Batch of 3 targets.
Target 1
Amino acid sequence: MSQTPLHIAQDFPATSVEEWRRLVDKDLKGKPFTSLQSALEGGLTLQPLYTREDAGPAAAPEPPGVAPFVRGTNALGLTEGGWLVCQEYSEPDVATAAEAIRVDLERGVLGVWLRLGETQGIRVRNTADMERLLASVPLSRTPVYLESEEDPTLSATFLLQVADRTRTSQEALQGCLGLDPLGVLARTGALRSGLQAAFTEAAPLITSTRKGSPGLRALLVSTRAYADAGATSVHELAWAIATGVEYLRGLERAGIPPEDVARSLQFSFSVGSQFFPEIAKLRAARLLWSKVVAASGGSPEAQAMVLHARTAAATKSRRDPWVNMLRSTSESFAAVVGGADSITTSPFDEAIGLPDEFSRRIARNTQLILRDESSLNRVADPAGGSHYIEQLTRDMARAAWTELRRIEALGGMTAALVQGDIARVLAETVAARNKSIRTRRLPIVGVSEFPNLDEQAVSRTSRASETASPVSAGPAELRMTPLRPVRLADAFELLRDASDRHLAAHGHRPRAFMANLGTVAEHTARAMWIANALAAGGIEPVQHHGFADVAQAASLIAASGARLVVLSGPDAMYPEWVPALTAALKQQSGRIVAVAGRPGEHEAAFRAAGVDLFIYAGGDLFETLSSLHKQLGVS
């Protein structure tokens, strides 16, 4: 689980800042001040200290409820009832999903978010299915949000027909019908009728809901496909606004004025693990959308973004999934502070399969505790006035605006998707992020850091059906390669999967004999680090502490039967012990010898003695573990 470095925002007199800078320069001992800066994805840079002067001549942000809505769209923030606790459902079976909805509504959930589709959602194929799904939902007071995998207009029709059957007033309906053609294109790779035809088809629904259902928004801009595929916060923000721009233009051509389009739009963002940048992203989203709608001639009321936030799928792990509870809590907290109108906390087991009642209970209770016990709904815009967050919001907005202009130069979001530009950017982003993950500069608790080889596996029913046909099959006016979801933990979890197969086939995991040199005090820190690193690849460390001499060490290692031996201890002992012990071990057939730590000037001598590899902080641990798997015959 990644952490955002701590940065301080404080009001200091100029003399205090200057004095602080002199002390910092002294402590740096010649290192540049820029060494204290932290780089964020998306080209952003965090300073070690933020003061009022960082705001420059810019005026203070408008209060909450005033355009451009950086501080929220409501004058009192979330203090009037709080945000909407909204649970998401994607169980394929209608009856199973309906029962989950019933239980959750009885126990604190206030809104229902339905993912619909044949492969990754609820299989609602007609109005009768939708009616069964919503049997326990009082539509007159419960917001319902649709996110359809393939045909949003058909799904919206089902919902409206259920409202008619249950004699629910159209005026009382709340939520979103989920018309998001570019979201469908990005997720499935196909838009059957083309974009302008989708706009033409959506126009009557927009008109009717604007007149008869003011609490029901027809259009959705969801960033799920981009966030799940690895987008940075800057890219997710920019592509959401670019999609909104595309909808404003296309629907105007279909006869819907920008004012009505803006008032019919709902945005949905994923919230990842970088706490402060995610807060800034949501605040910047409202700022940028307000500017776009204002430039389109929209009124201040139309400029107010309706914003849903969902805890990110990419940050969740299959291994040690209990840590996902902490990840989701942090992400939900960021969504609240960022001012989301409604929030979905994903179940901790979503990366494994279909959630059970326990995981859904933990998910909804996460928000209930944040609201009712932590009282996060009692402060209007808790982030407001923080020089750090205000500046980060502006930086995020500027970076996203630059990306938006680049997308516009390509011809808009549709062109960027179909031409493969979005996929290219995502591939570059994922490659750069994977480098940080592989070296553990971006650690994943429970997976690449502090893995538990003895954890009891959490088993869930698989989410995808083997019989479901691909959504993108058949002819389509617009087609592209669907964006592929990724998770931060994917690479290391593949190594753990291979270790599990080895355990099942041989009765034990791949092992490493840890030859810890010197006293316990001398070798403990390094030995623990190495054991943790090996376990990240599913390699079980077998510890032995201290040896009388090289002969005893070689004898004990031979008796262990371990092919992989890791020599670990204080650097001062290495010149004497490593060449001699390695030479003795290499006389034993098939022995792989690794040394813990950087070899420095001794590398040539150690390799000449037969050392195969060195394991150290900052190296490509994934590559090292993958190589060891191959040498140890781990499939």
Target 2
Amino acid sequence: MEQQTLTLVVLAVVAIALVSMVSNRLGVAAPLLLLAVGGVVGLLPFVPAVEVEPEWILAGVLPPLLYSAAVSMPAIEFRRELRAISGLSVVLVLASALVLGWFFTLVVPGLSFAWGVALGAIMSPTDAVATSIVKRFGISPRVVAILEGEGLLNDATALVLLRASVAAAATGWSVGGIARDFAVAVVVAAAIGVVVGRVNLWLRARTLQAPVNTALSLAVPFTAALPAEHLGASGLVAAVVAGLVTGTGAPRVLSPQHRLSDAEVWRTVEVLLEGAIFLVMGLELFGLLVDLDEDDHHLGRTVAIAAAALAIVLLVRAAFVAPLLLALSRRARRGAAVRDRVDRMRELAEDPDRFAAALTARAEKHARGRRGASRVERLRLEPERIERIGVRVRRRLADIDYLIAEPLGPREGAVVVWAGLRGAVTLAAAQTLPADAPDRSLLVFLGFLVAAGSLVGQGATIGWVVRRVRPAGVDQAALDRDRRQLLEVLRATAERLQRDAEADGAGPVDRADVIDAQRGVLLDLAREGAFASSAVRDVMAVLDADQISIELRRRPVEDV
């Protein structure tokens, strides 16, 4: 039995690799091809029914995938789009689940509202893994950031609501209990994720061997997720937060070799786990059909219900995204109205003495009582506090420019609506329904149909939608300009270091020291958000390659 299992695993790895190669040539996303391949193979008469424990997906597959996506997501974009992401991740999931719950009580005989909402919660979250399909079409980085952030966080809302709905089916609804469970799931998980992420960076910064360092990184998502689940929180949120903390801090504390090793290993992990999810989804089709037939459910009617549910999900999403875009537009207009004032503050911040005097005068003008006087005194005595204020001013100005340069209109909104794909989370969550759930085989199969229909119907047509609505894409000219400006800043930094060394009577500055200083300047600029994250990432790759080259040339001498 063990040898048979090992053979199946090897065949699955080979199939995922081959399909990934073919997908690039065909121009079709690999998840869609793997879903089709799994479905065809699963229907062959000599292939046994496949059933995977949902906990393997929820606890074993999704935490590392979400962690990997969070590590690579720029923190500045996540912060800027947090309002949109939180609305899509919480409010939209709740609204979709409630509307779907009402629909299912109408079309599934004998199904209570609580069980309907449970099924609605299963179908509501989008899939962060499935958004890999969207990236292939050169869509605006802002749209991609919103979709990725939504996919990272909405699983927690859906799973908490699912558990609450299952409990409500037996004991009744408790809005306060649901709100409390959600708060615990998010707050506790976020705290665990922050702690694990920081400990991870602290430990790996002291690990010299790149393979050992990468091996430690593979344990991070589970180290965050498992204790969170044990405490009743969301393991997925804990893994995501640990990934965000790691991704933000890694360039400052980890060497280029360690980060490069991490990136290569995690890319391999993503390919295998993503492929396994969609391959297994296809393979499970036959078993779900057998269960449905045994419970005497009509396949055509079931497919019609699933199609209607998917249409409702998209309609609710469109109804939510439209006012969300209006709110984001108002935010951009408010920023444009105060931009000149913020820019004047930014110019003032370039002169630390004048900026300190202006801040102190303003604090004195608005000081109220002992607390106000204390703030004035802190401004006088803490120049680093003034510097932090200057950073916030520059970041505010960069945020305004970002919102003005990348507006979200109806074209981008159409992509946000259509690109909200359902996937592995929906299927895995459906299979966690308890055995005593009414018409469990029907509910699970409906979840599969919605996930598969979304992946195939939306995933296969997203390119056509993009070509039709023509949303804003990547501004290549702006990216090239940012890269040139960043390279100029790095050259100026190197020249300044050399002038300082010559003024002190020292010789040429060591190139490794120059790279360290340049990386610090680059990360400070990235924190302020004045340049596109992709441009910062490209220039950082140049610095990393330069440092790795220097260290490789020096290694034989050091080893002698």
Target 3
Amino acid sequence: MFIMSEDSQRTQGRDAQSSNIMAGKAVAESVRTTLGPRGMDKMLVDSSGEVVITNDGATILNEMDIEHPAAQMIVEVADSQEEEVGDGTTTAAVIAGNLLGEAEDLIEQDVHATTIVEGYHEASEIALEAISEQVSEEVVDDEVLKQVAESSMTGKGTGGLTAESLAETVVEAIRHVELEDGVARDNVTVHTQIGASSNATELVPGIVIDEEPAHDGMPSEVEDASLAVLDVELGVRTGEIDAEYSIDSIDQLNSAIDAEESEVRGYAETVAESGADVVFTTEDVDDRVASYLATEGVLVFEGIGDSDAKDIVSATGATRVGALDDLEEADFGQADRISAENYGDDDLAFVEGGAAAETVTVFVRGGTEHVVDELKRAIGDALDVVATALASGEVVPGAGATEIAIADKIREEAAGIEGRKQLAVNAFADALDIVPRTLAANTGRDPIDALVDLRSAHDSTGRAGLITSGEEVTIDDPFDYGVIDPADVKREAIESATEAATMIARIDDVIAAE
């Protein structure tokens, strides 16, 4: 009896578990060397020759051409981490891979997968308690937030800028969008522009879009601007069907031209008389309308994208208008300054101040596309973790100190757990050692010696991490060196890694259709 197609491939039992675990471990191993301040970068080249250079875990995993379904689950761990808290993607992936490695050893010792899953879930609950115990009692003020941002960016590609100087910009941006009921993280955008040193990176109190004025004669800057956002084509109306007009005389031709001129001038006069200083429209603007408006001193940007129109509306308080006859002063948005600036081959529009200042843009500069792309990723992660830390008010020590504390507590609690589940709980603690071991390996220290020293320092002081300063590597309290992570980043890494590892460990039958 044939139940499945003859072309189907089926792998069962220990072979299926081994295959899935091996795939998950391989993916985690691919990003392990990027972890920490001494982590290395990866160069990813796609089939078209496009190059990405980064040490961001989520970016690396998403750029890799991964087909194995179990390996794809590790990618989802990084994606979940990125989506929820914005950083810790490499940590989450590495922990998930090591949990699978420990599970494989237990399976070879005939420990049932269900027992491993139960032990891992119990250990993860202990881990979350341990994280809460590591939360600093210090108030999360601007100085702490800068340390969080700097810790996030240390070791990442920040061009000629130091993580410390960028951290100030990041904290200023997040503070700018802090509301009574939380942080409006979506109100902070990152815009990249090549052609200058990364030292030219700045915070713009408003939004930046890739647009140029509709006419060269228009003003390049408007102060205290009243702006209109339109979904209107400012030009001669055309029908949707093909039509021909027969003209028998010069008078008829002149009349047609005059009618057309009257129409386009009417559009220009309507806009000018409305009182709008600046106009953004998602449709096209006839050259004659643009010329008329230029003489009236109105700055116009045509053909803007729908997303840009939404951003301008959100930032300035404007109302999008779909018909020119409906345009009223009440529909205008306000901005302190709107300017058009040229950067080599690129033209940008800056909408700053006033109501627009509720949205801020980190204007990232860099000498090459690779530099600004990696800088954008680093700043994006830093913005996310600062927003997370500010929202929760909870930070924990970095540099592997929290993982050491979690593993220590799990081993302590494991003594009270009966049966084979205790093996799984202890294995979970061993898996967490991969974080400090990897940090040590990436700094050039012997991982085993470093782990022994970290455990010893933790037992005597209660908090110990692997601190990298220049060429020196010290074991000390990370809080004393400003190496700090949001507690939610650690929690999310533990939870997402545990979920992925337990899901993969429980699979004992893989059916693949050709």
